Amino acid sequence: VKDLDFFSVSPDLFSTENYIASRGGIETAAGIRRISGMAGNVEDALLPARTRQAKVAMLLSEASDLWEVGGGGQWDVAPGTIATNAFNEERKAIWYALRNAGYLVDLLTENDVNEGRLKGYKVLYVCGRNLERRTAAKLQGWVKGGGIIYLTAGAARLDEYDAPLTVLDALVGRGAAVKADFYKGPLRAKLELLQLTAKDHVTFTVPEPHTTVGEIGYDAFASVEKFKPMRGAQVIAKFKDGQQAIVSMKTGNGWGIYTGTLPGQAWLKKALPLRVMGKGGLDDNFCHFEPQDFDQNAAAAILLPVRQAGLAPEVSGNYKHIITSVLDGPQATVVTMIDLGQYEPTLVGNGRKLLALTIRGTRPAKSVYTAMNAGATFQNGKDGVTVLLTDINYADVIVIEH
């Protein structure tokens, strides 16, 4: 974000929106002042910096968005209808899972792919049921050239006219669907997802180089597709009845992976306690919390393609609830970070435990500072720069000067 637009700085009795209290007063003004001060402290480095291109992308299919919700909008999906936003919810959950794991993720449309903008990416996630035939043809060439594509349950089985599409089947090793149980109606994380029961269970052995070893599993929620594997497909995971749940296929220099589940929903659901859903009110409202205890087994399934590609997270650290973005500039690298876990440094020996964040692909540092003056030091290494912080705020911006 390079521009801050405070839509109202007048006394808030004249305007309020969503979670801003109707009588925020001095607290709201102080928050605006704090944010402006943060921006001022880093703007010399932030303004010339540009968001680093990710190696991981997610497809936003206009064809899928139109057909799945029946031509309306996401908010038009009503209970008891065929229309659903489940595939869009899966897209978001996988995006969150990747961001929590330290990966940068770019969002590409079908037009982007058609115009050749997938070049340079190593992994592509596809969640929607519909896909333009022209885009599918482009994806074939990209995978053969070394890309890795990951499809969730039912993804890309229909084209932009809602007609059967089989172009990507050979890329991911899936045959025809044997039995499909797709979610219908609205799906929201803190409403419908909370009340869903598991449709099946998936077990698999995590391949190297994942740190988890042995057989693990996760429950399948919302949608499940049983399918025939293609000859030559490698079975990665199985359902309770022994049928394949995840398969992969090598094509040319690339790989395709297909799962008959929505692993993003499993990843998210474990972190959502059954609470009353509400909007507004006090800070301790039942629904006002950041999920943290995600399903790491489902995360392993989501991370299969990035592990296959040998991609390390752009940012990793000793505390897993820090979400970051990286911007590269001519004189400095800028790392924005948000703390979703309310980190509290613990005393170790005679001092406090340091928060360590390693930013890969970054030139050696000459100096480091943060927008909130968090007391940063650094260590240059072969993989990048490791920034050490004695304390962090809910949000901060790290500037690594080269």
Q: In this structure, how is the largest beta sheet organized?
A: 9 strands, mixed
Broad shape: globular
Helix content: 10-25%
Widest β-sheet, arrangement of strands: 3-2-4-5-12-11-10-7-8
Q: Tell me the Rg in angstroms.
A: 23 Å
Based on helices, strands and strand pairing, what is the structural class? alpha+beta
Mean pLDDT across every amino acid position: 88
Low-confidence stretches: none
Structure annotation, total helices: 10
Distance between the termini: 22 Å
Percent in strands: 25-35%
How many strands in all?
A: 22
3D architecture notes:
This protein is an alpha+beta fold. A 9-stranded mixed sheet has the order 3-2-4-5-12-11-10-7-8, with helices on both faces. β20 and β21 form a beta hairpin. α3 crosses α8 and α8 runs antiparallel to α9. It is globular. The model has no long low-confidence stretch (mean pLDDT 88).
